[in-house]
Sequence to fold (249 residues):
Amino acid sequence: MISLLRYPGGKFYMLEDIKEIFNKSGKTTIIDVFGGSGKVLMNLNAKIKVYNDINNSLINFFSELKEHKEEVLKKLDYVLNSREMFERYRKKSKDNLENAFRFLYNNILSFNGEGRSYSYSTKRNKSITLVNINNVINKSYNDIKYWTIERLDFREIIRRYDSENSFFYLDPPYHNITDLYDDNLKDEDYADIKKSLDRIKGKYLLNINEDEFVLKLFGKPQKRKEFTNFGINGRTSPKTKRVELFYYK
Fold:
């Protein structure tokens, strides 16, 4: 599995389910509507891949990495694991490349990749670190360099890219869980997702959390799966379960 960023709502443990649904669709173009970490896009085989998100930091990071990979790698050669540097890099620069580098650095050294609080563990030997990040970037870049990168509202990206050959993957912010994301959706936005999916020409997969509102709006899902949330150092707890719903066409 290819994975570059840690990001809330990552779909590591759902990738096989997502792959199966996408492969059965027979489509050649995939559009990741709420792209996030890009993990889903990196791990699916498609002729054309479109990454979309409205988060400026994510768009800038992937765009700069796509165009200036070597410069990002060079910057990483001169940094240390430092709480002081982490706090300094939380501030924005006027340079897009510098901001992409700072975003990556803080993603690596923050709690769950959220970029707000410094968190480092010597036991995190299987995660992305400053030691192994160069190899991870080189591996990820082989896919990212072919992406089309967009920063559009979900309604607009669906409208623009809808065709008989299109497959839309939608992993919107979890409904009624506002502390994980910088960009949350309102109830009317979820209603617009439903309207958009009802009229597309292509196919889609929507993953979303389970609650009363979601079930009332989207109806009974084609698949329902329970997953264990894995935290720092791979620790699990019976209390950290989540339910993911699969709606697809």
